[in-house]
Amino acid sequence: MINDADLQFRQSENIYRTLIEESPTPIGLYIGRDMIIQVANKAILEIWGKGDDVINKSYHAILPELEGQKIFKILDEVFTTGITYEATEYQLYIERNGEMQKFYFNFTFKPLKDSEGNVWGVINTANDVTELILIRQKLAESEEQTLFALSAAELGTWNFNPLNKSLVWDMRCQELFGFNHDRYIQFSDFLRGIYPDDFEYVKSETLQAIDKDLRKNFDIKFRTIGIENKQLRWIRAKGNAYFNEDNACNRIAGTVQNITREIADSEEQKKLIAAVKLKNDELNDQIKQFEFVTNFMPVQLWTAKTNGELDFVNQRTLDFLGKEAKEIIGTEGFLKYIHPEDQEASLAIWTQSLQSGTPYQYEFRLEDKKGNYKWQLSRALPFINDGKIIKWFGTNTDIDEQKQLQRQKDDFLGIASHELKTPVTSIKAYAQVLGAMLAKEGEQKKAEMVLRMDSQVNRLTNLIGDLLDVTKINSGRLLFNKTWFDFKQVIKETVEDLQHTTQKHKLIQDLAETGQIFSDKDRIGQVVTNLVTNAIKYSPYTDKIIINTKLENNEVVVCVQDFGIGIPEDKADRVFEQFYRVSGDKQHTFPGLGLGLYISSEIIKREGGKMWVNSIEGKGSTFCFSLPLNKK
Ligand code: ADP
Predict the structure, then answer these.
(1) What does the pLDDT read at residue 508?
(2) No. of H helices and E strands in the chain?
(3) How far apart are CA 19 and CA 27, in angstroms?
(4) In angstroms, rounded to a whole number, what is the distance separating the alpha carbons of residues 571 and 576?
(5) 385, 421, 495, 582: which one has the fewest Cβ atoms less than 10 Å from its Cβ?
(6) For residue 479, is pLDDT > 90?
């Protein structure tokens, strides 16, 4: 039978148990010197990482990892001495999930004594403060980093109260002002440390920063004299002013930084800028001299940027055009003053030169200030530096007079050859009739002389024909009568005809099938005739001439090779010019006007093809031309 008192006792014991059990503070009760666990609430079990099967087991048995961490010894001492042990932020390693983990605890071991004062157990309360400690450590670390950053930037900090003139600053400030570390710095010391010339500036900026109305941003650069170490330094001081309820500034605080280096660097920069300016002035001088000289020159002189835009023209050019420099410079140049008929081609050639970097040359008519077109030979060369085009230098030379003379010469040639043609044709007709009559009368010798006369008349006819062709070419009146024909066949027939004109030379044909071509048959025949007769004429001591045709990249190529006197290398390209004849000991004995190759190359050019020569002096020449196959 359970009595009331008993019941009451049990009930109150239950209440205590529950309170202890649910308390968020870890609580444990250990009995006897062996520390048998009597009570271990949820919170303490959580710390230990154990279940409630620890009850009635010894403290040492369930936390063997505490061996060597002094805890067992402390507990034993509390039991022996009866004195409470308290620890704060005590570091302990406890096993969790098979690993030793670091914890920090605030804990107490309090002895429990019987009425006679004998210790029978120990009550243990603890608080896990691990999280707190870790956060504090992190904070300390970041503080350290901030301090480190401050010192890396060589920033010093200061704090000044304008009301009582008290100044507090750190070691860095002290250093920058050149004070030894062991000194106590007063406001008056600070004032003494300022470079005298900068004193007024510092004072005025500070007064404006702490002025209740102005509140000017405080960011100044000034010099310190280095009171004790005599080192002059540039420093930058930045600060914020704070104002009380009465709008009086009671604090201005901020940082100082050593900027002696930066100032020195910027001094260096100033020197560099001055040097560059000097160079620029020198260059401007040179440009002025260049302009001065070019303005005297009797040609139009100009320079252009790499995009073709004109950036300089000399006075002569402006005088010719009757314009101001600003109307020409920075524009697309002369284009709008060029004769409409010459514009397109000159622009195309100029653009091509700009793109390829090859010299520019073109003849065009340029409108002068009176509105008259004058022929100009325009040339330009790229100025190259470090492999890059920097600029174009150009000239326009007045060739109007030359052109007029040329026109007069062409007119004369045209008229003269026309006038010559008719009588020569009748001479030829009469000679042929006379020759036939004499032969019939048995006057063989006389008939032969007439025949020779006939062949001279033929040469005369050819020369007149050439002159006529040249005048036609020069005036743009060379006409073509184009048809489809078998190219190889025409070459073959022409060469066969030519074979009759020479006994000495063997014309060897090496002709590939070329198919049909759309061109002027007679003009092509004329070109082949010119090449073959030249080959015969300029190889008096050899007898072989090879005529070869082939198809190459959709073109027909014809080459005539002789083994005669050849052409010096530096003259080879000039043989296609009008009236050009190679001069030399060997050449002067050959008759000719220097027109055949000019006419031939013009014909081929106008048919859309090309003409060229390979030659070795003394070994022979190979003249070739190519024509596009399927061009209509
Ligand atoms: P021409 O023969 O009437 O002088 P061309 O225009 O046909 O005029 O030729 C120009 C010049 O080129 C000739 O004067 C000659 O010096 C040179 N030339 C032409 N063909 C040959 C060749 N096959 N071998 C050497 N020189 C040649």
Answers:
(1) 97
(2) 17, 22
(3) 11
(4) 10
(5) 385
(6) no
Query: If you measure from the C-alpha of residue 534 to the centroid of ligand 1, how many angstroms do you get, rounded to a whole number?
Result: 6
Q: Which secondary-structure segment (H or E) carries 517?
A: strand 516-519
Distance, in Å, from the CA atom of 548 to the CA atom of 563, rounded to the nearest integer, reads 15
In this predicted model, what pLDDT tens digit does every residue of 166-212 receive, in sequence order? 888 888 888 888 887 666 778 888 888 898 899 999 999 999 999 98
Pick the range with the lowest mean pLDDT from 3-12, 154-163, 316-325, 381-390.
3-12
Alpha carbon 547 to its chain's center: 53
H or E element, residue 378: strand 373-385
- Name the closest-CA residue to atom 7, ligand 1: 596
Distance CA 247, CA 227 (A): 35
Left (φ > 0), alpha (ψ -120 to 50) or beta: where does 594 sit? left
Best of 581, 586, 595, 600 to mutate for ligand 1, by most ligand atoms within 8 A of CB? 581
CB of 621 shorter than 6 A to ligand 1: yes
Residues 6+ apart with CB under 8 A from 240: 218, 252, 253, 254
Burial state string for 292-326 with b = 16 or more CB within 10 A and e = fewer than 16: eebeeeebbbbbbeeebebebbbbbbbebbeeeee
Residue ranges of domains in the chain, CATH in brackets = 4-131 (3.30.450.20), 154-258 (3.30.450.20), 295-397 (3.30.450.20), 403-475 (1.10.287.130), 483-628 (3.30.565.10)
Interatomic CA distance for residues 158 and 255, integer angstroms: 6
* Residue 624: count of CB within 10 angstroms of its CB: 16
CA 542–ligand 1 middle distance (angstroms)? 16
At 111, list the tokens.
């002895």
The reply to whether ligand 1 has any atom less than 6 angstroms from the CB of 576 is no
Percent of the chain with pLDDT over 70: 95
Q: How far is the CA of 611 from the centre of ligand 1 (A)?
A: 14
536 in contact with ligand 1, CB cutoff 6 A: no
- Asked whether 233 and 225 are in contact (CB, 8 A), the reply is no
pLDDT tens figures, 58-110: 999 998 888 888 899 999 999 999 999 998 889 888 888 888 888 888 899 99
Q: Token digits for 501?
A: 């004109």
CB 454, CB 432: distance < 8 Å: yes
592 lines ligand 1 (CB under 6 A): yes
